[in-house]
């Protein structure tokens, strides 16, 4: 998302970082979490233990 991009505007940088954080936590499947996102992992753990 940010590879090779130089951003000298702190507002634009913060926007890009928020985009990346949203993608990383809510959309990108993680191999260490069996293909789940960090958001899905605790949600599914609580559903199975209820």
Describe the structure.
The protein has 50 residues and is mainly alpha-helical. It contains two helices and no strands. The chain starts with 9 loop residues before the first helix and ends with a helix. The mean pLDDT is 84.
Report a brief summary of the structure.
With 50 residues, the chain is mainly α. The chain has helices at 10-26, 40-48. It contains 2 helices and no strands.
Structural class by secondary-structure content: mainly alpha
Mean pLDDT: 84
| Share of β-strand residues | under 5%
H/E order of the elements? HH
Number of helices: 2
- Categorize the overall geometry: elongated
Tell me the distance between the termini: 38 Å
- Contiguous low-pLDDT stretches (5 residues minimum) are none
Main sheet overview = none
CA gyration radius, whole angstroms: 15 Å
Relevant terms:
50 residues, mainly alpha, 2 helices, 52% helix, 0% strand, elongated
Topology:
Blueprint: H1 10-26, H2 40-48
